[in-house]
Amino acid sequence: MLDLNELKQLVAFADLGTLSKVAEEGHISTPSITRSMKNVEESFGVPLFTRSKNRIALNETGRMAVEAARRLLAETEQAVRQVQEFDQRRRTLVVKSCAPAPLWELLHKLSASCPGMTIASHICPNEKVLEAWNEEKCDIAILPFPLKDAVVEAEEFFHEKLFVCVPAGHELARHSSLTFAQINGFNFLLRTELGFWDALCRQKMPASRFLVQTDEFTFHELVASSSLPCFVTDYFKNTEERYPGRVNIPLTDPEADVTFYLIKRKPDKGPGSTCKFGWTVV
Question: Average pLDDT in the 27-52 region?
Fold first, then answer.
């Protein structure tokens, strides 16, 4: 029976050239390496070395054995990696969301209901969420519309409405409500990773420019100190406290009032089966 550790030593011998160098690199004794080479030779059942006083060298068959060992070790590493990745995937919930707020709500619920699971989440545009869902690269999708499929469970999960947030002295502050058409052309502060909302604002406001901020602290500082408008949603109940001196004006466009759907695959209906989310089907 071939021993993987001894095969590694055989490959090391081919690369380093002497048993003493293999021993030094592996922090083991030279006699131990000598025994390993003898065991490898016995496992293959054919001579792999030419021997002279105080020296051995690979013969032609030995060099072929080294190449076979390299392939076997590579295949073994790949097999171990695949099994580990499979196990990690079983214990990981991948969530793709088109917007941040419903994702935050879901992560809070998942952390409480799925202890021991690793949760990987990403915010991306609708098309990227759909792509990941269709390619089965996510377990849960959050979209602003339901999916109709025999193997899909879709439920209303979260509602969010968009507001324009401006300083009290801004010209838009005199309005009790606004539309995208009215704010098109105004420049706005915008956060990254808004997914659906980012795409919607850019689509509805082609004449506007957006000062995009990746850092949350910098964004809040700019909102507090500048006259540029920004967007908020009703998810943040304390916006007035975060941005004193600003007012929030609702957008009346239907697209600014969104219901998000939670999309997941129906669990296996077999008796006693357990789905990835820890629910037992009886």
Answer: 94
